[in-house]
Each structure stands twice: as structure tokens, then as C-alpha cells.
Amino acid sequence: MKLREATAELHSKAEKMEFNQRMFRGELSTDEYANYLHQQLAIFDAIESQSRTYPTLNRVDNIKVDLLELNSSLDVTGSLLPSTLEYANHIASLSEKERLPHVYLNYLALAYGGQMMKTKVPGSGKMYDFENMQEAVGSIRAIQRDEWADEVNKGFQFIINIADELQNNTGSNS
Q1: Contact predicate 103/57, CB 8 Å
Q2: The CATH fold of domain 3-168
Q3: What is the pLDDT of residues 109-125, one digit of tens each?
């Protein structure tokens, strides 16, 4: 089965999470979005800290620019959710090759869905800016493997858990 088909169910579930829907509708407060960025910073730092394969994809610096623009601390230690810590630790436990499914999942999410989100979030959304979008997507597509489905689905489950925890922490449990 193709990777996209094998991950479609959890992909759809992740997109439909209330927190993600609120972000897409432009309903997040600056603080809620900054908290989301803190979670993203931990995830991308875990991916990028030992991976030098695709430096043009790196997001950590862009996320820090977004956090500074929102007047939010760059110290994420106290603001990480248990689900984010679990995902970051999972990624950190993988070899560079084993991290590739998470590169696929997280960077393509920013390259595609993120382009719609960029106009809906507080601040300028530098996290979603790639120097050369076509090259960034092409570099991921060139390494994409159907056998990544199980690991990509693990990543989606972590993302679902993070979105659920973010929503539960907002006080806006609709």
C-alpha cells in the first residue's frame, strides 16, 4: 500500500482535531499559538539536532523568530506538554535514517497545510517559510518510502495527542 493511503486515516483525524481546526479558523490567541510553537520547537529540535541531511528544511531558527515576534520566551523547558516530550524523546531515540518518516510527516505538513495556516495565525508565520518550497518538497519526495507507514502513523498519533493536550489546556473545550 502507498504511504499516503496507509496513513490517510490518522492524517484525517489529526486535521480534524479541535485545536487544529481552531488554528485553521484563525481562532487561537497569541498565547495559545505561542504554546503551540513551543511544542513545534521541541519536535523540530529533536529532528534537526542530529540530522544534517537536509539543512534547507531546518525550522528551529524560523520558529524562534516567530516566538520572539510574539514576545514569547525561547526557553521551552517549562512549557512542554507530556505528549510533546514523549514525541521528542521518541524522535531522539531514532537513528538519522529512522527519523526520515518524521521529516516526511512534519516538514510536508508545514509545506502544504502550513501554507494555509500561515495567514490564520498570530504573527508572520516564519515557521511556514521555506527558502525554496519546490526544492524542499522535492528533497523529501526523493527519499519518501512506502515502508515508512508504521512510523509515520506513530508520528500522527503523537501529533493527535499533542493537539488534544493543547486543546485541553486552553479552557475552550468545545
Answers
A1: yes
A2: Heme Oxygenase; Chain A (1.20.910)
A3: 999 989 999 999 999 99
pTM: 0.93
Q: Alpha carbon 157 to chain centroid distance?
A: 12
Contact assessment for residue 33 and residue 121, using Cβ atoms and an 8 Å cutoff: yes
15 exposure class (CB count in 10 Å sphere: 0-12, 13-18, 19+) = middle
Alpha helices in the chain (DSSP H): 3-15, 18-24, 30-48, 60-69, 82-92, 96-111, 113-117, 133-141, 149-168
115, 128 in Cβ contact below 8 A? yes
CA distance 114 to 125: 9
Q: Among candidates 143, 150, 136, which has minimal Cα distance to 90? A: 150
